[in-house]
Amino acid sequence: MAGKTGKGLTAAFVRTVTEPGRYGDGLGLHLVVTEAGAKRWIQRIVIRGKRVDLGLGALSAVSLAEAREKAAQNHKDARTGGDPLRAKREAQAVLTFEETARRVHEIHLPTWRSEKHGKDFIASLETHAFPKLGRMKVQDVTTADVLGVLAPMWTKTPETARRVRQRIGTVMKWAIAQGWRQDNPADNLDGALPKVPKVKAHRVALPYDKVTTFLAALAAYGAGMSTKLALEFLILTAVRSIEVREARWSEIDMAARVWVIPASRMKMKAEHRVPLSPRAIAILREAEKLRPATATPATSATQTLVSPFIFPGYREGRPLSDMTLSKLVKELGFPVDVHGFRTSFRVWVQEKTNAAHEVAEAALAHTVGNSVSQVYARSDLFEKRRDLMDRWAGYLGDVQGKVIRLPAGG
Fold first, then answer.
1. Which of 55, 74, 277, 394 sits at a 20 to 30 Å CA gap from 122?
2. Domain 97-187's class?
């Protein structure tokens, strides 16, 4: 086998191999490469007359040399009547399911798409999984145990149940990577749970011809100016709530009238350039006047600290919260979702302009076409999108004389 010598695997091969499969060394030691590219060690060994696959950990935590050392010790113990599998469980799997879940949550904290996603992960397990699984050793949780968590909620709240199942599975995958168990009990439930039709929940959107009415109500309402500006900015740019709430001054080029949202904050994990209409720029100018500045006690009185966020929240150094914009919309008497303003924009494009489909989708930061066509479609259609967003701002009208009306045709 490529990458092997007469002595078994080589460190270089172990480091660079990407093709899924099992790659053998000696004493039953194998490197397993999954379809997703993850690598882990297992040892196929006979323990008290029964052949088992003993997990030795992920490659990221256990080197080739360390895996060989573990395999040699296990082989020796098994030959002398010992049970390395039981010994491993007793020595390592000291964590309960709850302890394991909290550790997984902590490890993933830097990678959550937003703070809310991280909180939802652990909160759903606290509510639904911990009461039944929390005190169990993670290696002792069975498919029947997971079924006991999911069955009562599977048909009543299927979307929540699906997410809980997925999150239990994430915890179990980490336990497998640690070598604490061999299977994922959240994966073996398809025949045990009834089929529930997937119902796609659509965000409630305001008809596009009512958005000007909404903006007039917003302008007259007595909410905080930063929140009002953020909501109007969201409508004008047709971006997602989190992208506006966490927008930073460093992302704005006033002269070029461009807002560059980094890939780390985008749902599709790709940088998104947003063309800014004249009214959007005017909103930013107004937001600049509201930038909080306080004297730094340890330095001169002229030294100031300012928030990096364009629309800062009420807590110092934090952006607007997830519920702030939604609460404002409800207070104005409009039973719609903030995310629905993207739909308002999309329907307006479809009914009131002749903009190409790919231009409208690019304005919403949606991907268009299959992976092959995306490779060749390198342009983000920025100038065409600029014209479209200027037309959208123009269509929204001269609310309190703030917006210069532009042609709304194709």
1. 55
2. mainly alpha
Q: Per-residue confidence of the chain (410 residues) as pLDDT tens digits?
A: 444 444 689 999 999 999 999 999 999 999 999 888 889 999 999 888 888 888 888 898 889 999 999 999 989 988 888 887 776 665 555 689 999 999 999 888 877 766 777 888 999 999 999 999 999 999 899 999 999 999 999 888 888 999 999 999 999 999 988 878 888 999 878 778 888 766 555 678 899 999 999 999 999 998 889 899 999 999 999 999 999 999 999 999 999 999 999 988 887 778 899 999 999 999 999 999 887 554 344 444 444 446 788 998 877 778 888 788 999 999 999 989 999 999 999 999 999 999 999 999 999 988 654 443 343 344 678 999 999 999 999 999 744 444 433 333 33
Q: Sign of dihedral through CA atoms 190, 191, 193, 194?
A: positive
For residue 123, with 0-12 CB atoms within 10 Å meaning exposed, 13-18 middle and 19 or more buried, which class applies? exposed
| Cα within 13 Å of Cα(52), Cβ side | 18
Q: Hey, what CATH topology would domain 208-290+319-401 get?
A: hpI Integrase; Chain A (1.10.443)
List where CATH 1.10.150.130 sits in the chain: 97-187
pTM of the entire predicted model: 0.51
